[in-house]
Design brief:
This protein is mainly beta. Helices cover 6% and strands 33% of the residues.
Length: 883
Amino acid sequence: MSETTRKRRWLTICAITASAALVAIPAGAAPGRGGSSPFGARTLKQLAAERTQSVGAVTPKVTAEDDGNEADEIAEGADQYAEARTSPGVVAPGAYGAAWSSLAKLRSTGGSWRNVTDLPYNSDDGRYRDYDSNSSGGSGNVTGRMAAMAADGDGYVYAGSAGGGVWRSRSGGGHWQPISDKLSSQSTGALALDGSGRLWLGTGEANTNADAYLGSGVYVLSDPHHGTFSSRSRVGGDELESTTIHQLRFGGGKVWAATSEGVWSHSTKTLGGAWKLEFAPNPDYLPGGSLANDASAPYKNITNDIAIDPKNPAKVVLAVGWRSGDDYNGFYSKGSNGTWTRITSGLGDLPSDADNIGDVTFARSADGSRYYAIDQSPEQLNTNPDSGLEGFYVSKSGSPTGPWTKIADYQQLAADGSALTSSGYMPGVQAWYNQFLTVDPANAEHVYAGLEEVYETKDGGSNWSTVGPYWNFGFSCWSIDPAKQTGDCNQTTHSDQHGVAIGSYHGKSYVYVGNDGGAYKRPVSGSQDSSGHATDWTSLNDGTIDTLQYYSVGIGEDRTYGGVSVTGGLQDNGQSILRSNDKVMGSNFGGDGGDTLTDPADGCNIAEEYVYLSVQVTQNCAVNDGSWVTDPSKVTSYNVAPADNATSEARFIAPLATDMKNSSTWIAGGRHVWVQTHGYAIRSGDEWTSVRDLGAGRTATAVAASGGKVYAAWCGPCNNQGFARGISVGNADGTGWHDINLPATGTDGAVPNRYLSGFAIDPKNADHVFLEVNGFSRHWTEGPGAGVGHVFESTDGGTTWKDVSVNLPDVPANSAVVTANGGLAVATDLGVVYRAPGRTTWQRVGQLPAVAVLQLKLSPDGATLYAATHGRGIYTIKVRDCG
């Protein structure tokens, strides 16, 4: 293992990819910051220094290339995931709603899905302290990303997940129940309780990460203690369908919604009738407008928050703007003539120029004496490698019009106990993605703010503490010793904050935070250690809530305990491992987990893909007590990335597969198609051989192999600026490679000019193969050659193709498997469909909620189908129940 690869997991990234947004980041939107390293460097200097104190210690190498470009990678990963669903053009609003309606009309199979990951997932599991794990970081039990939180004074807590719906706890957190499974969108943008105790849900996650569904509107529960959301609880008409909702605010008898298509309002008393469009900075780009099909349309009316003056509800300030900058970015208020105009002066320290107003969050005190704000700056995002944060602000007049005073910047936060003190990755570097803000109802100067970490001030901003540091690595209290769990440090929260609420349970007040690892709480009057870190965080991810966001799943026989071992790669939660005797899942690899390869004959032979085709392998499930810190020979996981990783010529989540007939032959796809034949005994990236150069600017989107025959799909360019795709076919030994001629759309055998997402090879015949196509058909996609269909069949090794979609809903298809009896199961963005042997039409498999399924795998005996969902964990169903 080289010194440059030793840093991998300790320098983990939390990049955002994966589920089903209908927009792609425009070219040039993500700032470029140089550096050729494909990893987001979090240079843990203190940890590295500690390790160098031991002779022979394994020391992460910090190089000049490690310039902290993780925020860039998050944007790039988001861009690439969105490309798969939008290219070659722009997708019209309503596509997912129509697909869900079509799916609901399909005949359903008789079987029922079983969740196998509905148990605690301990990210600090002491069994897995190998080099590539983040275990001991301090996050404890985790689940998938929480986008919004709400809580009341009776112990009821509501957690809105990125892709797994809304959940309710009646006991101050924990013992969760899903309450939005009947909705066509399981993506949460905002949760809010109004003055009468009703719970409002804005669907469509709005942190512009391209990792979640657009929403289906706003819903309200009159009795949130007992009720569940349904289509009948939607407020207004379809005006907010296919938008994302950043915030819901109340004032003057109205609910205000900050959305991706402007600011809207609705009466809180009469829930019928249409929403009113209050303000859109560029209305020509809205649906129905003259520029609605422009490639930049999704970014021309983004609004982030609404501040309503508690003393005068008619005085309203709108925070409007795209995170990467646009001329329309700014604060707006309504003048005496009834029109909204940009505020150009009088704000005090709060910027009024478009270059320094991006994503903004407001919060006001219960007594009306204070307004607080977080401002992310497009200029900082594009020019400052350390942070995109402009600052924290307070209006001591209590009015959202100010004057505002700056009370913190990223440098001050870094000096107040932060774990992010290294150049290139400091507080607010992801301020476009991580923001929350709330004020203690009992104290106008007691404020909680969230970026990558959780910050607290008790004196209105004069002094801050990092009560929820990013992780414990680098602190003097940290130890890898499994007996100490997180060393002598206290538990912290997971990184990357999104939602916050304050409520009470049995008369005691708590702050609840939601982040990329789920939900956590601590007392509002909680304690801190000498570094300002909280000593009393509690994870609320008790296993009754499963919103884990899987990219992949792997299954192998558990030779130690019998049964099977189940693994899976996750958004920002590494790789989970569930042994057959486990009551708690562990995390054996950290960071973002992409594809997973597991030996069917031995579930402890595992390969896991990090981002950009960085692959690591273990042959003992990565069981390790951390002794490698002082004795490098005790490392039991190895980085074996092919060369496209180092040159950044692979996609963020790149394809990785084994040959169906020989698990020792692996196929990986970047610019090149790579093959290695040493199986899980591989120990170096040099053992890969390039068998096909797809060409400059091209990168693989799917690979599959059987009996030495290899299929590789590619795109390049991969965005809607000249999108192109193709298929190459050849042999694992490097012979016979050629590009398939794909006829133009509109001719017989045409494959749509859309993202090619997967292959499913017939285990009985390598020339019989199915192709899965992402995106939406031309009815919804404005782009050249979008075509129709999502599943295509070839019986001649890919030379010709036939559309076999028939009655399949028009929904992005992600992967498929051919079952032993000749059936075909397909994973889509809204569940799983199945075509029985000898049939031509499709059935819906079971009754999963509206959740994206990104990968399907079969158990070693072929009898059970495993589905990796991006928001509700891993589910299984017997193949016999699919037909």
